[in-house]
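hey so i finally got around to running both of the ones u sent me last week. sorry it took forever, my laptop kept dying halfway thru and i had to restart like 3 times lol. anyway pasting them below in the order u listed, first the sequence line then the structure token line for each. didnt double check formatting much so if smth looks off just lmk and ill redo it

first one:
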Amino acid sequence: MNIKLRLTALSFFQFFVWGAWLTTLGTYGFGVKKWSGEEFGIVFMTLGIASIVMPPVIGMIADRWINAEKLYGILHICYGITFLFLAKTDNPTTFFWILLIAMFFYMPTISLSNSLSYTVLKNHQFDVVKAFPPIRVWGTVGFIVAMWITNIFSDEYSPLAFGVELGNKIASFTGNILNANQFYFASFFAILLGIYSFTLPKCPPQNLIPQNAKLSEKLGLNAFKLFKNYKMALFFVFSMLLGAALQLTNMYADTYLKDFKNIAEYANSAVVKYSTMIVSISQISETLFILTIPFFLKKFGIKKVMLMSMFAWVIRFGFFSVGSPDGFGLVLIILSNIVYGMAFDFFNISGSLFVETNTNSTIRSSAQGLFMMMTNGLGAISGSYLSGKIISMFFTNAEGIKDWSGIWLTFAIYSLIITILFALMFKHKHNPKAIGEVGH
């Protein structure tokens, strides 16, 4: 099979097993289980905690001891098995611990899949900047397909009658509720992905670290020396600050749309019935923006691309704050989902490539793990916990109804402040040639 096609399959299922539950977990926690903002915020912190602890460690193991494709397969199989237990619990505390274990297995596979793809492409003489984005775009497609499957077969508001019928049969077979099907979808395909990864080209550890190296170097902690470089340190700090916003729409977007059911005139609106599919417009837009990244990176450079991403977050949250299920409000909801592609991809992909071009091969996997730790780790933890607490304290009334307009406006103001500070503080000279040499 063509190597690009094989990596495309890897990318597709890498994000399929995440998309099956990530954007609908809020609806599961708030709508089905009736958890509070604080309880749900803590549950969603599992992504951040795992991203702090695991990616640097797994990156170090891949750099030093175990083939990347084998390690990747083991992690996904363990992730899939853990999700079987997750589907069987509804206590938020127990749910937290099981999901935390699952995230310990899954979160490092995001950066590991990047490193694995980069290595395979380079070994086959491909230009990474040109070859990787079209492969990565299929990860977004996988995420979208998973969201649609969940909306149809794991949602009581499914837009298709046969979806609820078949979904209930699946739930009867598993002995669980309809909304828990999403966890079984993720589990089944994660195990299949883990098995598939063992068939990929070998990506052995480079073993470039000498045996007499310091313990910190052997553990991969030498990637933290990048903080000695002012530009890299500033990049990682802003990655953390923006990372606090990255997961907010994953946490709350579907719930936000579903909550329009509490308004009588919107209770049967398309926004409520097709909430997950509408949110998936965000991922559809990703497929277009990913393909533009090589052009924007080479023409404008990392700083301007990052600024575009940050300002796109301001627009994303701002449009949500004034959206509604009809008229111009619906147009703003759609536009908010479209601009998400620029907000998310320009930050994550360009950031990953920035790390790739500014680190050497001895710490590259660890550095990618460090980038993931700052965004989906420290950033996600602070964003998850604080957003949940703020929503409970300031934007939820005694009946549990949330002021989504105020919530999204608060997020928009935060993103605008980050954008202005980054524009003033981050100094980076654009060098198109350096970016173009990533694949050599």
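and the second one:
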Amino acid sequence: MKGTIRTVADVAGLDQATVRRAVAAAGFNPKTITFAEASQLAKSIADPARVLGHATNGRGQGAHTATETLADARANAERLRARKIELLNAKLEGSLISREAVTTTGARILSEARTAILSLGHRIAPRVAGKTDTREIARIVEGEVRDVLGALANDDRFFAELEAEALS
């Protein structure tokens, strides 16, 4: 097929010599090879760095794509730099805190809650020892549970600890 090498080179964005070398390296005759075979060979053998170089130099189709790709990459890099500066400013202003600091503080508060609940039995036992009235025992247990849960539910204490540990 006449012009196959040129057509493949234009479609692939390669130099004609590159396509011709790929066809010859595979053992095909450049004058009798089909478009499909030449295209496949050009894609499989062509060096991607050379393809970009050809496109940048204006050989083959795609010269404008390399420039646009470079412009897109630069624009993306600028967007990422701007985002990084936004995050840094937010952190410096105090509106952004470390995930690790919040996780550590939350884990410590949950640990304290677990310890307080588990200690209820030891705190209640002396007060209910010898008592037989179930209402009185229930009232003592409820009172202690309410005290523990009230201390754990104190918003001011939670935010004060969070401020002291995670935000400072």
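quick thing i noticed on the 2nd:
The chain is about 75% helix and 0% strand.
anyway thats it, ttyl
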